[in-house]
Amino acid sequence: MKTPAVVLMHPTGKCKEFMADTMERWARKGLLTIAFDAPYHGERALPEAGLKDLSLSSLGPSQLKEIGSTESGRLKVYFDALVKGYRSGNERFVLDISRDALWVMDYLCFRPDVVHERIGAMGVSLGGMACWLLAAADERVFSAAPAIGVQSFHHSLVNDLWQARVDSILPAFETAKTDMGKSKIDQEVVKAVWAQIAPGLAEADPSREDAFDAPLTLPCIAPRYLLVVNAEKDPRCPLEGVRLCLAAAEEARLVAFMLSLFRLQIRKQQYKRMFMTWRSDFALPSRATRASDFLIDEL
């Protein structure tokens, strides 16, 4: 029997096991689900930061708590990799996750028990960014639900709205500030770091072949199904920039006369409340429920 499938991508500092509750809930709905550790996360950061054995019995609360205790160590490995990436240009922010997700898509399309025309993708925060880029790059993604990830890096850069995003991976920017002889992180520092660890991500000039900020790449998902879930007051994904992305995607859909679905779900709540909620357990908030219902309906 063949079944639709979903690729899940976790937030910064988390790991594949962090998505277990969501995976189980979707599996009970008849979807094959798969999650993987992003580069320099989970067992790809610390070998001991994973399951003791590949059995469902090992994926219990005590094991997840033990994995969670390694988060600070895993984050250091990730931040060190981004610092190295800034200096060498060899390590990537977000782009490497999307690259790995393409291989996961290859694997799913090889499996005889998967409906290859019905593969969805979902990610949160860092995973949400990777989800949008994966869906833009790979037409095999039938529907995508990036949560707290879609944003315009260029809009944030030129409007000095980059502080919260920079703070989430601060060591690379602190290193650049020092190397550039600056007393503080400014727009020039931010632009230099993005150019090294995510070349093209903060570029919005359509005449440039290496530009792929969200207003340029989100439209590539049309006419396939897309649900963008963001918070109204999330400083890491400023709402004005999100609206630019969605406007570009909607224009692509209308110009092509395509019957696709583009929806923006804005959580009308204080950012602090939202941040605390999803950080504590992504499986519980309504953002996950909305993404879950969307993918189940469309797949």
Automatic annotation (TrEMBL):
Gene3D superfamilies: alpha/beta hydrolase. InterPro entries: AB_hydrolase_fold. SUPFAM superfamilies: alpha/beta-Hydrolases. It comes from the Eukaryota. This is Peptidase S9 prolyl oligopeptidase catalytic domain-containing protein. It comes from Durusdinium trenchii. The lineage of its organism: Eukaryota, Sar, Alveolata, Dinophyceae, Suessiales.
